[in-house]
Amino acid sequence: IELAVDGGDHPDTIATLTGDPLAGVPVNYTGERHELDDVRLLSPVIPRSKVVGVGKNYADHAKEMGGEVPSSPLLFLKPNTSVIGPGETIIRPAGVESLHFEGELAVVIGRICKQVPVERVSEVIFGYTIANDVTARDWQASDGQWARAKGSDTFLPLGPWMNTHLSIEEAEHLSIETRVGETVHQDGSTSQMVRGIAELVSYVSGSMTLLPGDLILTGTPAGVGEMRPGDEVHVSIDGLGTLSNPVADA
Amino acid sequence: IELAVDGGDHPDTIATLTGDPLAGVPVNYTGERHELDDVRLLSPVIPRSKVVGVGKNYADHAKEMGGEVPSSPLLFLKPNTSVIGPGETIIRPAGVESLHFEGELAVVIGRICKQVPVERVSEVIFGYTIANDVTARDWQASDGQWARAKGSDTFLPLGPWMNTHLSIEEAEHLSIETRVGETVHQDGSTSQMVRGIAELVSYVSGSMTLLPGDLILTGTPAGVGEMRPGDEVHVSIDGLGTLSNPVADA
Q1: Least CB-packed of A243, B111, B128, B247 within 10 Å?
Q2: Are B46 and B30 contacting, i.e. CB atoms less than 8 angstroms apart?
Q3: pLDDT band for position A20 (50/70/90)?
Q4: CB-CB under 8 Å, A208 with B93
């Protein structure tokens, strides 16, 4: 789907595309157009290889977690089976008391690449979307490694769409806000990232080949907190819309 | 490829198959047969979703790492971009001094599944292969999370083939040996696993949906050690062959 094809004349509609730009298949418009309210958006991307998260990349969040900003980026992986789309339900697993939201800007990779120099990172970025890096704090503390705490099913809401028209500079100056119901918990800006987008993508690609559809989650601002069954959590980023997901018990 | 189709009459040959059993596409033999020496085997599987490792699942290895067996399985993830096949080169990245081998039995998942009861795990296993869970010890210590230390390119040699004819009980009684050159470093048995195959698969599937081609690495016995550029490392498991890979600097 493409929201901006007509320059914004129909802001609440989507146009149907053919092809898959992430697979290198040319994209064409079918001419079909739907009201946004009449369709259900899915996750804009299902990573075929990996989702790399970056821990403690906002200084205020590192502080609220009782730590410092790491001396090099703190990388972790989330599996593609944790992905859900906008409106889909985040499930709090049995045995988890403290399930936290972490609103984040997600970078979508568009090209096979490795050891990308900082100054060429813009060439390998396909676009941006919103991620909620759902985290089971009890498992994060008990397990040590974060695979289960951050990689369980439904722990990676993505969407509602990808924005493919932002420069890195623009993506680094977006307001980011997370609400639970009406209450604002995270109210920051991507300009507060300790390490910027180019540095992060370059660093990750230094050890791991990146593939089209891979995601880099750029970290979360201060204000993380609990989601409880019955809540609805909303992550909003300028120009990327609002990613909303209800929460339920398993 | 299939090594046992003729009951072992041609042990050093392979038969060509059509189809993809992991994708549910029926498999047929073309009748073509090659000498093993005339072909290059690739990784027998490229996971489409995830590789889940289990830390410290052999008591003697937990002890040599200076720790205890964790009270619940210690899970970590490796990306599919870290996979290489038999004979491919393990690359020691720049800045890594201590690159370790960890010979392991790998379980290949054959069905989409979640929350699999222990007694039904055999229904979701497609087969078994050998893995070398290559680990950069310096990064493992400095990073805290193991994504880079265990997830870098070439850090997951797999192969040389899958054995689809083993019961869980058989797979839990295989000798496993890792050599560097002629020197044996790991000499154990899968019977020494703290948690068995059924318990591990059931546990992982409790939080993450498993997909065909996903791998569960079942942990490494005592005796891990360094690989240096110029070495060749060999992991052998009864009935699964020998996975050999040279090591080089980046």
Answers
A1: B111
A2: no
A3: confident
A4: no
Query: Which residues of chain B have a CB within 8 Å of the CB of A74?
Result: 143-145
Q: Which residues pair with A116 in a beta bridge?
A: none
Query: Contacts of residue B143 in chain A, CB cutoff 8 Å?
Result: 70, 72, 74-75
The pair of structure tokens assigned to B132 is 């070398």
Measured between CB atoms, which of B74, B79, B114 is closest to A77?
B79
Of A49, A74, A211, the CB nearest to B143: A74
CA distances from B115 to A79, A81, A144, B199, B207 (A): 17, 14, 22, 11, 7
* CATH architecture of residue range(s) A41-249: Alpha-Beta Complex (3.90)
pLDDT tens per residue across span A30-57: 989 899 889 999 999 999 999 999 999 9
B132-171 pLDDT per residue, tens: 999 999 999 999 999 999 999 999 999 999 999 999 999 9
Q: Where are the alpha helices (DSSP H) in chain A?
A: 59-64, 137-143, 147-151, 168-171, 197-207
Residue B150 per-residue DSSP state:
H
pLDDT digits (tens, 9 = 90+) for A58-102: 999 989 988 888 999 999 999 999 999 999 999 999 999 999 999
Say how many CB pairs under 8 Å bridge A and B.
Answer: 93
User: Where do the domains of chain B lie?
Assistant: 1-39, 41-249
A71/chain B closest Cα distance in angstroms: 9
- Nearest Cβ partner for A152 among B78, B145, B208: B208
Q: What is the DSSP string of A12-81?
A: TEEEEEES-GGGTPPPEEEEEEEEGGGS----S---SS-EEEEES-BHHHHHHTT----SS-EEEEE-GG
